[in-house]
Specification:
This protein is 79% helix and 0% strand. It is mainly alpha-helical. The protein has one domain.
Length: 267
């Protein structure tokens, strides 16, 4: 196998595409105009999401853990003095749980920002992806459809993504009731599902121009492993970082466009 063929199947190649996108956009300043409005949209979506989800969730958890600590403290008051160590242990566990919850919330918020930001900003992402593909490959492959078909395809794409999330999330949730291994499998499955949806979102601007069906788009994501796994994980990490996730989505769309162009060229 040649080095070029080997490269397309590496996990770290996928991780490197956001850096490749930064370099490419930096060298083509005509693309910058397509970044401004999507970034403004993402900032508005992100601030709204943080206000309505992050703060209330943390306050709810604080209230929940404080109530537990008070209840345990009252019970321990009736026990020997040495048992006060249980309060310290409980406080430690509650802080660990709070950190875990915070990380989960960051991932959820980043995912929500991607979903809503991608839908609202899709016209600008589509134009960004088109211009980038022309500059990167020297041509633009697009299958024309009328506006009604385009709207219906966009709606169906979102509905099928939602159905995929529901169908897979339910059994993953049920796995949590299986001790030990169930939680681990559920965690890995959840991350895999999230990365799949992220890849679908960031590849869609390019794949949709080819008018691929949803199953074909899903087949592209899974058929290009492990490169798409690396891409999905790095994008999941980037969109989970507060503030950075308000401006990173156009970069991820650009990186996804470069990856799809490379894969279609080599397939």
């Amino acid at each position: 196998m040649s080095k070029e063929n080997l490269k397309q199947f590496t996990f770290f190649t996928g991780i490197g595409y956001p850096l490749l996108a930064i370099k490419f956009i930096a060298n083509h300043k005509q693309l910058w105009q397509y970044l401004i409005i999507p970034i403004i949209i993402n900032i508005c979506v992100g601030i709204t999401t943080y206000i309505f989800l992050l703060n209330p969730s943390l306050k709810l958890f604080d209230s929940f853990t404080n109530n537990i600590i008070i209840s345990v403290d009252n019970a321990i008051n009736q026990l020997p003095e040495w048992s006060n160590i249980l309060i310290a242990i409980l406080l430690f566990i509650s802080q660990i749980l709070k950190v875990i919850l915070f990380l989960i919330l960051l991932i959820i918020i980043g995912f929500i920002i991607v979903q809503f930001g991608s839908i609202i900003g899709s016209p600008w992402y589509g134009k960004l992806s088109e211009k980038l593909e022309i500059l990167y490959t020297g041509k633009l492959e697009i299958v024309e459809v009328n506006i009604i078909q385009e709207i219906l395809r966009a709606i169906l794409f979102e509905l099928k993504k939602l159905l995929l999330i529901i169908v897979i999330s339910v059994p993953l949730f049920l796995l949590n009731f299986i001790p030990a291994m169930g939680n681990l499998i559920s965690l890995v499955g959840g991350i895999t599902l999230t990365c799949t949806i992220i890849c679908l979102d960031f590849f869609d601007a390019t794949l949709e121009r080819k008018r691929l069906h949803f199953r074909e788009k899903l087949k592209f994501v899974w058929g290009k492993l492990p490169t798409t796994a690396g891409f999905g994980l790095i994008c999941l990490t980037l969109i989970s970082i507060p503030l950075l996730n308000l401006i990173i989505i156009p970069l991820c769309v650009s990186a996804g466009t470069l990856l799809v162009c490379d894969k279609l060229k080599r397939s």
